[in-house]
Amino acid sequence: MIILGFDIGGANIKAALIKDGDISETYLKYYPMWTSDLSKLSEILTDVVENISGNFNIDAIAVTMTAELSDAFYTKREGIVHIMNSLNDVFEDKDDRLYFINIYGEFIRVDDVLHDPLQVAAANWAATSKFLGEIFKDCILIDIGSTTTDIIPILNTLPLTYGKSDTDRLISGELVYTGVLRTEIPSITHKVVYREQECPISSEKFALSADVHLLLDHINITEYKIDTADGRKKNRKDSMARIARIICSDIELLSEEEILKICRYINSQQIKKIQSALEKVITSIEYKDIFQLPVIVTGLGSNFLANKAALNLGFKKIINLDEKFGKKGNIIAPSAAIALLLEKKLMDE
Amino acid sequence: MIILGFDIGGANIKAALIKDGDISETYLKYYPMWTSDLSKLSEILTDVVENISGNFNIDAIAVTMTAELSDAFYTKREGIVHIMNSLNDVFEDKDDRLYFINIYGEFIRVDDVLHDPLQVAAANWAATSKFLGEIFKDCILIDIGSTTTDIIPILNTLPLTYGKSDTDRLISGELVYTGVLRTEIPSITHKVVYREQECPISSEKFALSADVHLLLDHINITEYKIDTADGRKKNRKDSMARIARIICSDIELLSEEEILKICRYINSQQIKKIQSALEKVITSIEYKDIFQLPVIVTGLGSNFLANKAALNLGFKKIINLDEKFGKKGNIIAPSAAIALLLEKKLMDE
Asked: Which residues constitute the domain of residue B213?
């Protein structure tokens, strides 16, 4: 059985092709919707499908999305309907191979989505956690991507989440709007330490978390998969210039060590942010000796953010999904998880 | 005597024409350098000069700048030299009518700037406060513009500032990177109150302070002189959609009153930010009964931000420069202040 999984985000479209229970291909297209011509979305999706599936016949297509929150769309409803229509252009109109996951982790069809679009809004975490529950019966998942962090407690194979919508998930701590690449510095911290003093920072988009993590050797230039804040290059020198600018300085006036100190401070504040959300999530769970639960970390920030936040808080057993499963660490990606889930469902039927 | 004053900022170029001690014209050109073709800067400056001075012969030109911090330039030095060269293209090469103010409030010439460019970096506050010191002997100036806030104690006619560079001024509290229009919400607060709960906000550039202040009727649409965050319109409905998005919601899901509550919360946090910088500034001043000092407020945010911050802290005498001087409130604008200062200097010589 061949299943195509789609995770249509506001910045990236991710796809995974599943062949008989295995991930055969994955594909990521950087496509920032907020600056793109949305009428071209179906062409972009067609390209992605051709790229990943070649001449394969696809038995079913599983879709999850978060792009409806992008300010490319006036409301989530408008976004979801536009994405649906673009998918209908790519495949046949209301193709009966199309499946969508909703916030309750159920697969629903085109007509159901059109009837109540909001139930598929930002449901990618539901796909991921449902899939993961089948591997780890009890655990806490921390998935840190380019822009956001998901913290999902899974007990007895099921996600035990308090929030369903993104807003509720922000409140519960299950969604933290902080990530490895696209996060602007003022959303991590309003000040840094510079020459032993607290220095407030500029509110301009002078630098991004990608610069911090590149300079701290947490990511390499290939992983810096976004536009830079100033349109200049992705290299150490230009990242240093961007970081210097956040305290209204420049690389003539700051030493490399001073810039790295600023990066280390920002990094520690980002860990604290994740840590405090994790704390909020676990205090709402009733579980005997919660710190014995394994914490499953994944995504770009698994090692230098998720791992640290969990250790700081007192968790002892931390499993890096990417290391554990090798290339298959990708299964955590919603695009793959949703395809694998759909395959299982269709096989069971 | 006819003097042209220039304040060349990263987002706006402001100019004022002084005729015999009076402001005869002011002109503002929105020109975001970080997205512009910098080789065109001299053309833009020529346009501004033609617009404001018509056929007048100008006796002298006074210049201050902050645009060198824009990420259009790699370093401040590069920015200052580029702006100098553009001015040299507009006027004759090294025109002897060109004067620049440095961070010590002194007027210097083209060759001095080329010899040590950094001394003119972000010196606009020096022009403003030197000028103001001649009107109010002892006072504290709070000038809140579209992007930043300056807090300048003036004692015995002279600015008593601890910071000279922007970085030092951030540390001392004399520069606060918060303003009425261009400030992104996460740089004001990381959370808002929503349905009696604390809700963390998205790190995306979904809305700006201009949306908050438009919805709270602090500014009108004409004063909303920047690009919107999502490229949509400057009106209440679109501003509400942008604010709803910061908690990952939309205008279908939030009521107008809920959105206004969020705005009021952000507004109160912005006042607190200015208040705490003001507190930092005054604790470093030795002055008997400091709360008796008049606080001079000016700029777009004079009434709803500067005024509130000063009152909250315990100041009793607050003077709104714009109201006191009517249209002449514009004298506080560095472009006018610097021109008036230069006129005085040239008359005295």
From this structure: 190-265
Q: Where residue A64 sits, what CATH number does that domain have? A: 3.30.420.40
C-alpha separations of B264 from B119, B257, B268 in Å: 40, 10, 6
Predicted confidence (pLDDT) per residue in B168-217, tens digit: 999 999 999 999 999 999 999 999 999 999 999 999 999 999 999 999 99
Nearest to A250 by CA among A258, A263, A241: A241
Distance of CA A180 to the CA centre of its chain: 10
Same domain, B155 and B304: yes
Structure tokens at B132: 């103001």
Residue A111, Cβ density class (10 Å: 0-12 exposed, 13-18 middle, ≥19 buried): exposed
- Tell me if A249 and B34 make a contact (CB, 8 A cut-off): no
Residue B185 lies in a domain: no
Contact B242 A71 (CB under 8 A): yes
Distance CA A221, CA B69 (A): 26
- Check B71 against A230: CB less than 8 A apart: yes
The 3-state DSSP class for residue B69 equals helix
Number of domains in chain B: 3
The ipTM of this complex is: 0.93
Residue B154: CA count within 13 A, CB half-sphere: 26
How far apart are alpha carbons B302 and B294 in whole angstroms? 14
Give the best residue of A69, A71, A188 to mutate against chain B (max B CB count within 10 A). A71
CA dist., res. A235 & res. A348, Å (int): 50
